[in-house]
Amino acid sequence: MELQKVDGRKARGEKKRRAIVEATLRVIERDGVSGVTHRSVAREAGVPTTAPTYYFATLDDLLIATLLWSAEAMCDDVLKIIASGTAREIARSLATAVDTNRGRTLAEYELYLLAGRRPELKPAARRWLDLATEVARPADPVAFRAFLAAIDGLLMQGLIADVAPNEDELEPIVSFLIRGRDESTAAPREE
Amino acid sequence: MELQKVDGRKARGEKKRRAIVEATLRVIERDGVSGVTHRSVAREAGVPTTAPTYYFATLDDLLIATLLWSAEAMCDDVLKIIASGTAREIARSLATAVDTNRGRTLAEYELYLLAGRRPELKPAARRWLDLATEVARPADPVAFRAFLAAIDGLLMQGLIADVAPNEDELEPIVSFLIRGRDESTAAPREE
DNA sequence: CAACTACTTGAACAAGTGTTCCACAAGTTT
DNA sequence: AAACTTGTGGAACACTTGTTCAAGTAGTTG
Which PROSITE patterns does the record associate with it (chains A, B) (predicted)? Predict the structure, then answer.
């Protein structure tokens, strides 16, 4: 049981595997899921055409691995903001998501839609919702669900706007949505 | 200027053109945008492979035509409900959209995402939002934008839920969202 | 009937696809 | 050093793709 000494080949293999996944995510951000092919990914990652096939049995597996990994990474970012953020902080994050991180946000919603057709992706797509609900322990579950739904809507609508909405534009909307949140938790229960 | 007599050939042509568009929409509902090829559409429509190419210069044109047409059709349905519906009616429509009309709703959101990458589709994707705002003449624009955003979010999240949310589950959320609407318009301004 | 236009359709092409195969290099163990 | 496992990567295969082409039919007009 020597946990110290790992096979150098496997170590490099895992590294390359991750590099391929990261390259795939970049391709998705740039060209969408439909732009993902063994060859486009290999080119992006700077590896031979057969490398993706070696590490992932099928193209679908590569896609799924990428989206699971992407969702995981996204979760952390989102949660911090939602759980403890003020309306302005949330609005700023949303504005960034549809502007600077536009490609990434688009990719994220391609996951949603893909999950709509592939049940095995559903848990990953739903993860941030479940976590958010768990972390926030909302006093008013109905208002909180409305809030979470509106976040998705604001992001999607921000993606198809002629000019992406900015922080100042989003702030009042976010304020409206979390209106009930802090009021209701004025006397927080410690259980 | 004989507007009466139309070329019988052109008439049939237009009919076939529309049949191809409808077949394309069915393919999107079933297999997603990525499932759309000249051949799959032709098979679905029961026409030879070259028919789609004859009527649409390129596959992209076919896709765009289909999505424009789909968005148009969707608009009418949605508007009636939003503008004059009660919370329960809206909740019922949403529940239907993620259950019975699941495929159609998925297709609609693929338009959204496609519009995110193809500016020429943005107006079509945004159409229902603009129309809804115009028709509703909301007293509280902020609350209304939150409401519209939440609709998108509820639909998308409904698509990735393990079991699609039903009418009763959605009703309180919709109620929460339109809470301010009717109160604010108690004294409607006629200008 | 002849000229013209609009539509029809099968064959074919080049390009790109996912995937397999296999000879080989490199690292690990005995 | 021999046997093994793991990773590498070029060549190739069968297949699907978007699109073109040319020969054809049918409807319209003069």
Answer: HTH_TETR_2
**Nearest nucleotide from residue B38 CA, by C1' atom:** D18
Task: Choose the CATH number for A7-56 among 3.40.50.1100, 3.90.1150.10, 1.10.10.10, 1.10.10.60.
Answer: 1.10.10.60
Alpha-carbon distance values, B65 to A74, B57, B123 (Å):
34, 11, 13
Nearest CA in chain A to B148: A153
Q: How far lies A145's CA from each of A33, A138, B89, B106, in Å? A: 29, 9, 19, 21
Cα–Cα dist B110/A98, whole Å: 17
Output DSSP code: residue B47: S
Q: In this predicted structure, what is the pLDDT of residue B84? A: 72
Averaged pLDDT for residues A97-117: 94
Which value, to the nearest 10 degrees, does the dihedral of the CA atoms of residues A56, A58, A60, A66 take?
A: 10
CA distance B34 to A112: 15
- Over the stretch B133-149, which tens digit does the pLDDT of each residue have? 888 888 899 999 999 99
Q: Each residue of B152-191: pLDDT tens digit? A: 999 999 999 999 999 999 999 999 999 866 554 444 444 3
